[in-house]
Amino acid sequence: MSKHIRPLDGITVVSLEHAIAAPFASRQLADLGARVIKVERPGVGDFARAYDTRVHGEASHFVWTNRSKESLTLDLKNPDALAALMDLLAGADVLLQNLAPGAAARMGLSFEALHAGHPKLIVCDISGYGDDGPYRDKKAYDLLIQSEAGFLSITGTPETPSKAGCSIADIAAGMYAYTSILSALLLRGKTGEGSHIDVSMLESLGEWMGFPMYYAFEGAAPPPRAGASHAAIYPYGPFAVGDGGTVMLGLQNEREWKIFCDQVLQNPQLATDPRFDANAKRSANRDELRALIVQTFAGMTTEQVEARLDEAQIANARMNDMAGLWAHPQLKARERWRDVGSPAGEIPALLPPGRNNAFDYRMDAIPKVGEHSEAILRELGRSDAQIAALKAVKAV
Fold first, then answer.
1. Rounded to whole angstroms, how far apart are CA atoms 27 and 120?
2. What is the per-residue pLDDT across 36-55, written as a single tens digit (0 to 9) for each?
3. Whole-prediction pTM value?
């Protein structure tokens, strides 16, 4: 079996993208071998390029979501630049966009406008709230969707609602755009026709909220905010250790509770203490139980606590920071890191999840703004004079 053939070799994706949701979706298509042409604003490019300068001068969000792409700059308000985009779509399989609501449609880039002339083209629109409904034109940023989807209401401490530390609404929408495009490509293989995909950030994160929604079914109380602990199971969450470390551990049943008392706390009598002899009681009396656990852990190191937990086969984890994740021994042992090129030189990047024995993921460079503009325009038949004319008016 050849590992040089990737699942999306030969597929061309044109993406009018910025920020996170659409770039995250298109990068994953590129990982599988698709040619992704990222259309950016002349000069400045995707505004996510300027979010920060944490990676040798490049933006952290940008290097994460934009490897293996070609950058084409076009001012789509210029008729000649828009004509070049239309020529590009003639040979494309997918048009992906997450521009402001209605912006793509106003340029004639809706599925309805394109389908007759490009019947095989798949069009995927990502927006905050979807193509219709009363919220259609409402601006949507990741935090706002976390709020609208109820995520903030169940996340944080009892006193303070907290957003996720990474952009989960964007990530959710990007994931559903990615999988929906893969599904549309499979469907086109059966029908011969492209289709329209309408991905909403609210609906994407709403799907991830299934458990708390059903937990609060028909007006029942929702899960309380419990910080890093579990709202209904105890002990489950972070516990301080004597050397200043923190260990996460979780118990799922009474059998594990007895083992935990016997082998980890080395206090077997605690298992039958009437305050703690059922999960509901442990959860109700968690402050008392926490004090007993922390008292035991206070005379131990993180490694000693982990060793006891592992020996007892109690689920546990170290509370890593970002340096800990960069240096994670499991990622190193599984050889999950690769170097990719960028305008700032080589940058380490994690391989995509899902190791496949049949092919290697594509891990190519992060492009400079407009790095591939001239080559793509020549590919579309534009002459040097035409390219110079576009440059003269800053249309590329």
1. 22
2. 999 999 999 999 999 999 99
3. 0.94
